[in-house]
Amino acid sequence: MEKICIISASVRKGRESHKAALYIRNLLKDKYRIEARLLDLMTYNFPLFEERLKYLESPSAEIMDFAEKVRESDGVIMVVPEYNGGYPASIKNIIDLLTDEWRRKPVAFVVVSNGHFAGSQVIFALQFSLWKIRALTVSPALRIADIETSIDGDGIPADKAGMDRNASSTINELLWYIEARRKMA
Length: 185
What we know:
By secondary structure, the protein is of the alpha/beta class. It has a single domain, classed as Flavodoxin domain (Rossmann fold, 3-Layer(aba) Sandwich). It has helices at 18-32, 61-72, 89-97, 120-132, 147-150, 160-184, and strands at residues 4-8, 37-40, 75-81, 106-112, 136-137, 142-144. Strands 1, 2, 3, 4, 5 and 6 form a 6-stranded parallel β-sheet that branches.
């Protein structure tokens, strides 16, 4: 069975994107029978990036725990809000922290916004950052507009059938990348 980590990137009070992470976890469990790990960056106490993990003299237990969970996973789904056309520093921090853990790791994106553009401006920046460190970025991304009303606090979408259809496109592609990577290893 696949091991998938869902990274909930926002550490902001009153964050909305975490609802999308809950939704993805529920969909993976209910439709795909995959128990995904939810790595909520709000629960980690990461310092601002000072050095890559492999060069840190004494990394914290939290950093080592996070790195191990990413390393063990077959694939990662990053749930990222769009802030002013970009992504939050919290996700850039962990992208830069890890190196070997991202290499050839299939990574899919769920991007959200409180507007109608559904985080579309952030996708290219995320893809480029991960491409530079040799992660396998998956297309298409799931883009969720109007996050305040599209998913409730328990991760239940207002239009479940439509959201499931769109999310399944991204998840199916991630699963294809995971299988392809497994065959090439």
